[in-house]
Amino acid sequence: MTHKSDYTAAELLAILSARQLKDGMVVFAGVGIPLLAATLAQRLHCPGLTILFEGGVIGAFVEPGKLPPSTNDQRCTVRANMVLGSAEVLLLLQRGYVDVGFMGGAQIDQYGNLNSSFIGDPKKPKTRLPGTGGGNDIASLTNMIVAMKHEKRRFVENVDFITSPGWIKGNDTRRKSGLPAGGMFRVVTELAVFGFDEKTRRMKPLALNLGVSRAQVQENTGFPLEFDSDIGVTEPPTEQELSTLRVLDPERLYIA
Asked: pLDDT digits over 218-249, tens only?
């Protein structure tokens, strides 16, 4: 059994995220932890996982030590099934061929809306972020998994801008906004794994990570959380998960 000191927070994030994926899924993955997690799942328990990239690659099988820094990087194409244009890949989303979208964000709110556009007043933002890319398309049309660092400034009651929609304002507002499919499924952090209430669609802790208290999770969250009395604890990373992850990212670009 591993202990908290045996792995980094980023390694935990990647491993817990990989566990959310199932064999046979088609996954639209962003770079960084989402790509690393999808690649890890592909190696360990999802040999039939199909990874798609916004840059046009279908069926990526990333080589160990050659994780691409961008979805347009040619390293994404090694052993891929097909390379299309970006528009054609996004059309697969619209046609319902993609099961899961997998990415991160700068801010997330209580209903799973993601902000990767700007922080602060839109007229005079404090920080400008990369923007949507294909993030809005992915979040609008698939079941979403989000992997991100758990900080109060990131987990806010209402995001400054909805770049990628979650459950909008909760209840059935996503459907009423014209998005009948998909929705936010899981949020994975170094503190806990979260789901969303079936009725209210508010974020809800499903399991705490080893050694993490409810108070610690709430202290790092900018909105009130409801904890079930029988909330679980995630299984710590196994030696196999850690060793495979470190082979995939030997330079520790993402897992330092």
From this structure: 999 999 999 999 999 999 999 999 999 999 99
Annotated domain spans of the chain: 4-248
Q: Which pTM was predicted?
A: 0.93
Longest Cα pair distance anywhere in the chain, in angstroms?
A: 51
Instruction: Quick: pLDDT tens for 48-67.
Output: 999 998 888 899 888 898 88
- Backbone dihedral angles phi then psi of residue 187, each to the nearest 5 degrees: -125, 125
Q: What amino acid positions are annotated as catalytic residues?
A: 54
Whether the CA torsion 88, 93, 99, 104 is positive or negative: it is positive
Percentage of residues in the chain with pLDDT exceeding 70?
A: 99
CB-side exposure of 65: number of CA atoms within 13 Å?
3
How far is it, in rounded angstroms, from Cα 35 to Cα 70? 10
Name the DSSP class of 164.
B
User: 4-248 — its CATH code?
Assistant: 3.40.1080.10
